[in-house]
Amino acid sequence: MSLTAAIPARQRRKPRLDGWVGVTIGLFVLFGGFLVYPLWTVLRESVVDPATGGFTWNYFTTFFSKTYYANTIRNSFLISLSVTAVSLIIGIPFSYFYTFFKLRGARFLFIGSVLSCMSAPFIGAYAWVLLLGRNGLVTRAFGAIGIHLGSIYGFGGIVFVLSLKLFPLVSVYMNGAFKSIDTSLLEASALMGSTGLRRIRQVIIRLTMPTVLAASLLVFMRAFADFGTPLLIGEGYRTFTVEIYNQYLGETGTNHNFAAAVGIIGILVTAAIFLVQKFATSRFNFTIKASRPPEKRRPRGLGGTLIYLYQYALVGVAFLPQLYIIYLSFRRNNQAIFLPGFSLDSYKVAAGRLLGRSILNTLYFGAVALTVIIVISVLIAYLVVRRSNVANNVIDTVSMMPYIMPGAVIGIGLVVAFNRPPLAITGTALIMIIALVIRRMPYTIRSATATLMHLPISTEEAARSLGASKFKTFWRITVPMMSAGITSGAILSFVSIVTEMSSAVILYNNKNITLTMSAYVAITRGSYGLACAFASILTVLTGVILLAYLLIARDEDLKM
C-alpha cells in the first residue's frame, strides 16, 4: 500500500482558507481603494491633457524646463538636508546628556522638548516671525542697543525654525538607542584607550548608527513635506509643497494637472531618499542586548554647568514660540496689531468664529481616525509577524507609503479620486478622516509590530491548545500583550492627527475645519490675535495628550 493511500483523506485535503485570509483580502481592498487608487489618479492627472484626454509629458517638461519650478524641488532638498544635519548636531548631544547624566528637572526637559516638536507645523514659524521678524519683539529689543540680528526670512530662517522643531525627534529616537548600549562595551573600549569624545565617536555613535539613520530619515521626510514654515517665512525661497498648494488652490490661477506632476516628482525624490536610507541601514545590521544599561551619573564642575546650560537653553529656545503664542493670545489687539494691556477678546472672537466646531471636529476626527488606525494596525502587525507571507508583506509595505509621501499629494489624490459618484465624498468629514488614517497610521503600525516581534508565541499556542479559536486567541491574548506598543503608537498618531495640516489644507471647508486650520486661516487673514487663541488651545490640547501618554505608558522613550 502506498504512503499516500495510508494517509486519511481528511488529512490529504488542502488547508482551508481561514478568517485571516479574509482579513488579508479586506486590507488589500481598503488600501487599494483609499491609497493606491488615489495615488493612481494623481499619476493619471500628471500625464493626461485635459483638453484632448490624450497622454502628455508637458507638465513634467514644463517643470524641468523652467528654473523656477525645478528650483522648488532643489530648495526643498537643500532645506531638508540642512535641517537633518542641524537636528543631528544638536539632538544627539541633547539625548546623550539626558541618557548618561542624572539631570535635575529631566522630566521637564523631556516634556518641553517633545511639546516643541508636536505643535502645528506653522505655529512655530508664525511665532518666530513675531519674535524675529522685521518688527519682531526680539528684533526691536536688540535694534535699540545697536545690534542687527539678520533676517528670519528665507533659507536660513526655515532651517533655523525647522531644526528647533524637529531635533526632539532625534533625541527621542536616540534615548532608547543609548539605553540599549551595554556598559561592558564601554568599559572594554576604555581599557583599550578609547575615552571621552573619541569613545563617543568610535563606539557609541557606531553602535547606534541604525537609530541615527532612522531618525535622519524621519527628520528629512518631515522637513521635506513641511508646508506652513516655508509658506510663512520663505518669502522668495519657494519649496515644492508651497508650489503644489499654489498650483492647486492659488488665488492667481490654478493648474491641477501641473500640481499632480509636482506631487509625483516629490514622491520620487522622497522614495529615492528612503531607499538610500534603507541601503545605509543594511550596512549596520546588528543587534544590541543591554544586560547592563548605562548608569546615570551626576554632572559636576564646569562641565556639569555647561551640560545644564546646553540642555535648558536648547529646550527654552525651542519652546519659546509656544509660550509667546500663549502670551499674545491674552494681549489686546486690533487684527494684526497688538496693543498694550490684556484681555480675553481673542478667545471671545474665536468662540464666535468656529471655535466650538473646530475643537469638536479635531476631537471627533481624531477619535474616529484613531479607532480605525488601532484596529487596522494590530491586524497588520499580527499578519506581518505571526503570518508572514508575500501578500501580508506587500500590505505592510503599502501601509508605510504615506510615511515617505507629502501630505499634499495624498490630499490631491483623495480629491481627484472621490469628487464624483459613486463615492463623492470630497468636502465631507469622511474624506478628512480617511486622510488622517492614511497619513498617521504608520506610527501605530511600526510600534505595534515592534512590540509583537518581542512577544513569545508560546502563550498564544497554549490558548490554542486549550480550545480557543484563532480570532479569540488574537483578541483575548495577543492584543492585550501588545497594549503597551499599541498605546505608545496610538498616542503619537493622535498627536499627529490633531496637528495635521499638509493634507487638511487641500481638504478642509467650514464644516470640517479643525483647530489647526482655524489658526492657519486666521493668520492668512491677518487676524493675529485670533490665530494665537486657536494656536494656544491647540498647544494646550497637545500637552494634555502628551501628559496622558506619560501617565499611561510610564515611559520616557516614545516609539515613533
Question: Your description of this structure?
Answer:
- The chain folds into 2 domains: 57-323, MetI-like (MetI-like fold), CATH 1.10.3720.10; 330-407 and 423-560, MetI-like fold, CATH 1.10.3720.
- Helix content is 72%, strand content 2%.
- It has helices spanning 3-6, 9-12, 19-46, 58-65, 67-100, 106-117, 123-132, 137-143, 155-179, 183-191, 196-207, 209-225, 228-233, 240-249, 256-282, 301-329, 345-352, 355-386, 390-399, 407-417, 429-453, 458-465, 470-481, 483-498, 504-507, 515-524, 528-553, and strands at 331-334, 337-342.
- It has a two-stranded antiparallel sheet.
- Helix 5 packs parallel to helix 9, helix 16 packs across helix 27 (528-553) and helix 22 runs antiparallel to helix 23 (470-481).
- It is globular and about 70 Å long.
- Mean pLDDT is 82; it is low at 1-7 and 9-15.
Topology summary:
Layout lengths: L2 H4 L2 H4 L6 H28 L11 H8 L1 H34 L5 H12 L5 H10 L4 H7 L11 H25 L3 H9 L4 H12 L1 H17 L2 H6 L6 H10 L6 H27 L18 H29 L1 E4 L2 E6 L2 H8 L2 H32 L3 H10 L7 H11 L11 H25 L4 H8 L4 H12 L1 H16 L5 H4 L7 H10 L3 H26 L7
Helix pairs in contact: 3-15, 3-18, 3-19, 3-20, 4-5, 5-9, 5-12, 5-16, 6-9, 6-16, 7-16, 9-12, 12-15, 14-15, 15-20, 16-27, 17-27, 18-19, 18-21, 18-24, 18-26, 20-21, 21-24, 22-23, 24-27, 26-27
CATH C-level of the largest domain: Mainly Alpha
For the record, the count of structural domains works out to: 2
User: What is the CATH fold-level name of the largest domain?
Assistant: MetI-like fold
Q: How far apart lie the N and C ends?
A: 60 Å
- Biggest sheet overview: 2 strands, antiparallel
- What's the gyration radius in Å? 25 Å
The mean pLDDT is 82
Structural category is mainly alpha
Query: What is the overall shape?
Result: globular
